[in-house]
Amino acid sequence: MKALILSGGAGTRLRPITHTSAKQLVPVANKPVLFYGLEAIAETGIIEVGIVVGDTAKEIMEAVGDGSRFGIKVTYIPQESPLGLAHAVLIARDFLGDEDFVMYLGDNFIVGGITGPVDRFRAERPDAGILLTKVSDPGSFGVAELDIDGRVVGLEEKPEFPRSELALVGVYLFTPVVHEAVRAIEPSGRGELEITDALQWLIDRGRDVRSTVISGYWKDTGKVSDLLEVNRTVLETVEPLVEGVVDDTSVIIGRVRIEAGARVSGSRIVGPAIIGANTVIRDAYIGPFTALSEGCRIEDSEIEYSIVLRGSSVTGVRRVEASLIGRDVEVTPAPRNPAAHRLVLGDHSRVQISS
């Protein structure tokens, strides 16, 4: 069995961060989102992994390399433009050959991994398998309709009037029959080859398409609010560890990880939080659910429930929260405008002015 990971999207919902960085490499608890997916694939025992890349191919290739750090072997598959999930399967035909495969969206995050669904697919070998979860806004996702026996009878991509609250999680399992489906379908109104259309093609021809409804945590990290929520979830599992230097005037409370080379002085850190290597914190407050990457500087400031990327600084600012700050950013106070009061006062007046 092989794996196909999609990492070619533009990440428009994360701009301006994704103007200069791949959305799949934005860190959650100081580790790129894509790495969690690669680790989940490796845990299933799959070795051969194809990564579909687009405009950010160079950055992703530099970060992932040949995959050996994850215990996998990576082949990169260029995609000229993001023309849909089924298009990714179409261009990966030579890599996939005639083997079963799992397709994983590189910006998705699933607590607990995918080993269970992959093992069941290997054992039962339906023509296709999908993962579903209940969501409050199904119109923003691919939506599945099940019959009374739980079999998939209909799929639709981002419907205006959803027929269920079951959204497709970004993990799909296929036998080689899917290659016939992706060749047969036409582009949707969005101009893309939709994987939901390919699955519907299989269903319409009586193929065995099964679903698994997962109850664990899942997020599509395409929006800042979702990234912060995933960051919170991961930080809740952080084990306390201090490898850096913390002076006697600082207070560390709860699950806080301070990596090697980091220096904390005159500050208060309330976990769960992670402080990256060589980051400097001075006279500052770091609140819960905050991840500071390596080489940051937080001085005379307060920050909470935020992600700060490599080499950025926040100085003299109160207060920053629910924020995503990119690489090599400087956040400082705005200069105060001179305050002036223009007065025409008569004799013997008394005036009180708050300054």
Brief write-up:
The chain is of the alpha/beta class and 355 residues long.
Write structural notes for this entry.
The protein folds into two domains: 2-233, Spore Coat Polysaccharide Biosynthesis Protein SpsA, Chain A (Alpha-Beta Complex); 239-331, Hexapeptide repeat proteins (UDP N-Acetylglucosamine Acyltransferase, domain 1, 3 Solenoid). It is α/β, with parallel strands linked by helices and 355 residues long. The protein is built from eight helices and 30 strands. The chain starts with a strand and ends in a 24-residue tail after the last strand. The strands form seven sheets. The protein has a seven-stranded mixed beta sheet with strand order 5-4-1-6-11-8-12, with helices on both faces.
Blueprint (SSEs and pairs):
Elements: E1 2-7, E2 27-28, E3 31-32, H1 33-43, E4 48-53, H2 57-64, E5 73-78, H3 85-91, H4 93-96, E6 101-105, E7 108-110, H5 115-124, E8 128-134, E9 142-146, E10 152-157, E11 166-174, H6 178-184, H7 195-204, E12 209-213, E13 218-220, H8 224-235, E14 241-242, E15 245-246, E16 251-253, E17 256-258, E18 263-265, E19 268-270, E20 273-275, E21 280-282, E22 285-286, E23 290-292, E24 297-299, E25 302-304, E26 307-308, E27 313-315, E28 320-321, E29 324-325, E30 330-331
Parallel strand pairs: 1-4, 1-6, 4-5, 8-12, 14-17, 15-18, 16-19, 17-20, 18-21, 19-22, 20-23, 21-24, 22-25, 23-26, 24-27, 25-28, 26-29, 27-30
Antiparallel strand pairs: 2-3, 6-11, 7-13, 8-11, 9-10
